[in-house]
Amino acid sequence: MAQRNLRIAIIGAGASGIMSLIKMRERGLTDVTIFEKAGRLGGTWRDNRYPGLSCDVPSHLYRYSFEPNPDWSRVCSPGPEILAYLERVVEKHGIAPHIRYDSEVTRAEFQDGQWLLETTQGPQGAFDAVLVAVGVLHHPVYPDIAGLECFAGPSFHTSRWADGIDLAGRRVGIIGTGSTATQITGAIVDEVSHLALFMRTPQWILPLPNPPIPEEEKARYRANPELVDDTYRRYASDFNSGFASAVVGAAPERYAEIEAACKGYLASVRDPDLRARLTPDYRVMCKRMIMSDNFYEAVQKPNAEVVREAIRQIEPQGVRTADGRLHQIDVLVLATGFDTHRFVRPMTVIGRNGRSLDEVWANANEGYLGVTVPGLPNWFMIGGPNSPIGNFSWLLTAENQFNYAMQLIDRLRSGNVREIEPKVEAVRAFNAAVKAKMPDTIWASGCDSWYVDKNGNVASWPWTYEKFEADMREPVLDDYEMV
Ligand code: N01
User: Fold this and answer.
1) 66 and 12 part of one domain
2) What is the CATH number of the domain that holds 201?
3) Which one, 24, 125, 133, 399, has least CB within 10 Å?
4) CA of 230 to the centre of ligand 1 (A)
5) What is the CB < 6 Å shell around ligand 1?
6) Does one domain contain both 156 and 295?
7) What pLDDT, on the 0 to 100 scale, is given for residue 142?
8) Considering only CA atoms, which residue is closest to atom 15 of ligand 1?
């Protein structure tokens, strides 16, 4: 059957965009371009360069299904190794010529059945479909603390690390205690003269050993690729069926195990006063679970201090807390997280009938199954609203969503369909189901986190991984308007 060779734009050359480009080209789509805002690929693994950066999802799970890697150095490999993996995959698949760097998409407008794109390099013409792979955790949040700009020493957000900065023998302050701050703390505590960790809210921490993978094991993986797949399946079952089900209330026994492991790790803190200060007052996993094999050990070192007093202001010499004390600091690290709800923005997106995405998402980011949005025909997202951004491999989520989107794109290729978007009723029903299910999840059990938007909506997937996989297998075409 004759097929239209669609002109497709992918936005973002992070892990999802790279995978999408490879898979589209494998399916014979030759006119596909990635527009990437930066000068290098890799998304979060390019932006984050802080000490201790690693992925806390085991590497044999955090990989593309089509590119197993026998050579991962650790159970959870360091960030630079993951970036090198992505670069290797791009080279192996020969897709580099199809990535346009320094090309941030500033505007996308749907006109006469096509998307007109503009980037920081100027107008890029018309595209039959757009696949958004911009990622979720990349707009840095800077804390609203008086005097922040007065600090005399280096001060930067963790995703804007001051490359080459020497922390040896210096007094370092870290504001924030999420996954990022936890990894940095363990990595730098032995190097700095003093580490002050400003902890507004303690977090639960799951102990996750992260040993190097011995050379003999790597050799076995190389000799027998089946073993790599076995390891992948083992982790997939543990993380997807176990972890992810526990978060959504579908695996109470697994939840109890995780809770006990977190509490056991906390109990290893010897000083009762410090232990009390590190004890959260909300349920395990309500905030995104932190994994670490060294955090409590690090904060018990004599040169480390956990500061629970509220920050009153930043002064040139350090951080003054509400008790009047000035914590003298040479380098101030802002580990204050990301605005996940600005997804897609600041890009201007104008859909059908001139309606902007900002208007559609004024109160909440809502779409259909995390992939499509009503009023935005031929617009597909990896990681859209209510995607499962919980505790399993993002790469797996991305591949599932891509396969779903690709089946809709195939309808466009067939030539019988020019425009495709979800029906308003289907979208309403999906979002009503999300809202009805969310109270069963741990995220809605009473804490603040980056999952929750300003109106209290939880942005994650409230069902199991198995349901996600089943929903992604094949689009229900009745839920789509096709012209
Ligand atoms: O950010 P966070 P993150 N004054 O939002 C505090 C992924 N990730 O960069 O809880 C004082 O978790 C805030 O305090 P509170 C992972 O999905 C993955 O650490 O709001 N404190 C909190 O402690 C992770 O969940 C890996 O009271 C302020 C912290 O800043 C996500 O990225 C590694 C403050 C923000 O924590 C984000 O993690 C690292 C203020 N004004 C990250 N404002 C992997 O290994 C904020 N805070 C895959």
Assistant:
1) yes
2) 3.50.50.60
3) 125
4) 33
5) 54-56, 137, 143-145, 175-181, 183, 198, 200-201, 288, 311, 335-338, 448, 450
6) yes
7) 98
8) 201
- Specify whether the CB–CB gap between 477 and 417 falls below 8 A: no
- Type and span of the H or E element at 130: strand 129-132
pLDDT tens track for 43-76: 999 999 999 999 999 999 999 999 999 999 999 9
Give the whole-angstrom CA distance, residue 121 versus residue 112. 23
Structure tokens that stand for 184 in this block: 């940095």
In a domain, 1, yes or no: no
- What tokens does 125 get? 């013409």
Instruction: Fill in the amino acid letter for 54.
Output: S
2 domain-assigned: no
Atom number in ligand 1 closest to CA 200: 27
pTM score of the predicted model:
0.97
**Which domain, by its residues, includes 280?**
148-212+219-334
Amino acid letter, 305: E
SS3 at position 386: coil
Q: Which residues are registered as beta bridge partners of 303?
A: none
C-alpha 409/C-alpha 24 separation (Å) is 10
Short-list 166, 176, 173, 183, CA closest to 142: 176
